[in-house]
Amino acid sequence: MPAFSSSAPGKIILFGEHAVVYGRPAVAVPVTEVSAKVTLTPNPRGQPGELKISAPEIGLEAMLADLPAENPLARAIRLTASALKVSHIPAAGLRIKSNIPVASGLGSGAAVTVALMRSLSAFLGQTLPDERVSALAYEVEKIHHGTPSGIDNAVITYACPVYFIKNKPLVRLKPGRPFTIIIGDTGIASPTAVAVGDVRKAWQAAHDHYEALFDSAGAMADSARKAIENGNIELIGPLMDANHGLLRKIGVSCSELDRLVLAAREAGAWGAKLSGGGRGGNMIALASPDRADKIARSLLEAGAARVIVTDVS
Ligand code: MEV
Question: Which residue range forms the structural domain that includes residue 92?
Answer without folding.
Answer: 4-164
